[in-house]
């Protein structure tokens, strides 16, 4: 068939069965690609027309959905700026000095994103293409960052098994270290990466004793230790220690400002002064050199100054919701309260016929009779997660009142599901 006679109608006729197939997969909760939680629009819909003004939305998809408040917006509007690539933005310089002091590091660099920050760290620590880093098999750096370390930096990764608390076995770690460089058969071990708190494992806090042992092992073999500390401030609050107490065991760290700390953009990469000087070059090569970046650096400075202590509110709200799940009668949910350490909650289902996708869809839509039972419609947004679980994340935009609304909605969904089950039997 030539291009001239391949009409729009012909194309649509071919496309239609593919669309139907994708729609069927979505209904069944299947997606054609491997993933640990679905991105994009959450399942469900806003509810019947005319109810939008009576519907409350509690967004627990991620702590990345936070928005800057009035004080932060004012600081951004009033920020004095300059050219950061030339090192002349006063607000960026101020933020970098503040972060370095806070983390107990010699220097820090303001970077657009956590993914770029981790990539820069890998590029600086692993100086030659073909070098190797050791990472947890469930780490964010390994799963969610598109393999950028291999794709862009030419760095090979070998994995160790991530344990439920976010740590890994030190004997297994030691067994992964390559020896005999420059043996032509093997890459050269350069770097160990840890993640704190651990995203996939539900916001787990790495014990200080584990970090101390990993650092000792790294030093013994001449390796660097980098922490993906996107949520390390949550770990510090949970342990009730300053972040420098945690970071004394690492050579470098990447800390996100745009999650629970509430800044609209930005990550701090910190470490020794010579490391940061090389990181500046990598940032430029990756397109991360910003000009008048003081506008966003002002928000970042405020997030480190004023938003750390309030993270405990997120932790408390997550525990409150977890307890409500645990106390649901009859029991529908399985939740490990000992694992609820920070702002991320993972839970699964004792009722096998209730799938994560179905539960999230029910939570995200306004159900029949809900407004009458609860006095309003409530949409709670969360994601199906790996291992037939659901992930919910508390953050700056979710209050104790919002948490109680989410609990009411969960109880309503549970009661409706049980009624349907009884009718079906």
Question: Can you give me a brief rundown of this structure?
Answer:
The protein is of the alpha/beta class. It has helices spanning 8-27, 70-77, 90-103, 114-125, 140-143, 148-151, 170-175, 208-220, 232-239, 243-247, 273-285, 294-306, 311-326, 356-364, 370-374, 400-424; strands at 55-59, 107-111, 132-136, 156-160, 189-195, 224-228, 252-256, 267-271, 333-334, 344-349, 377-381, 383-385, 389-393.
Describe the structure.
A 7-stranded mixed sheet has the order 2-8-7-6-5-3-4, with helices on both faces. The chain is an alpha/beta fold and 425 residues long. The N terminus is likely disordered. It is globular, with a radius of gyration of 24 Å. It contains 16 helices and 13 strands.
Distance between the termini: 55 Å
Quick one: how many beta strands? 13
Helix content: 40-55%
Q: How much beta, percentage-wise?
A: 5-15%
Low-pLDDT windows of residues: 1-41, 45-51
Q: Which H/E pattern describes the elements?
A: HEHHEHEHHEHEHEHHEEHHHEEHHEEEH
Silhouette: globular
Main sheet?
A: 7 strands, mixed
Structural class: alpha/beta
Supply Rg.
24 Å
